[in-house]
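Hi everyone,

Forwarding the result from last night's run.
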Amino acid sequence: MQKKRAQMQLSFGMIFSIILIIFFVAIAFYAIKVLLNTQNTMNISKFKSDLQNDVDKIWKSSKTSQEIQYLLPSKIKKVCFADFSNPATKNEKIYNESKRYFSPEKNLFVYPFSSYDESSKPLENIDLEKTTASENPLCFEVLNSKVKFILEKNYNESLVTIKRTA
């Protein structure tokens, strides 16, 4: 009596098709990752641009105090303002890390650090010394992808101050 064995034969075409499918799925995941990273970079650039526009509006006014809110990518945990010409008074770990990453004229950064900060420019028309007087760097928590703070300018001041919300 002879036993019959079942054989599964895959043709070369079938194996090649499976390899192509795996290759295309891997490329699709990579493309999605790049697209999301680009979106995060654009969102942070938009945040910095919108913040500069809001600071400029308040800077041009005579007296204003305005609470503002911005949307940021979910990976961002903090938005910080630092005066690198003065020593750290709080958040020393963040201050020391940021001092290694950024040039002294940069005063705004997001934490954790990433490629998002590569092309950042300093925020203009803010009173950095007064903003960071009690905390250097002054960091704001990002909750549910949102950050809030107050932009303020009084009659006798020439620059805008950034403060915590109540």
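The helical segments are 12-60, 92-101, 128-131.

Cheers,
N.
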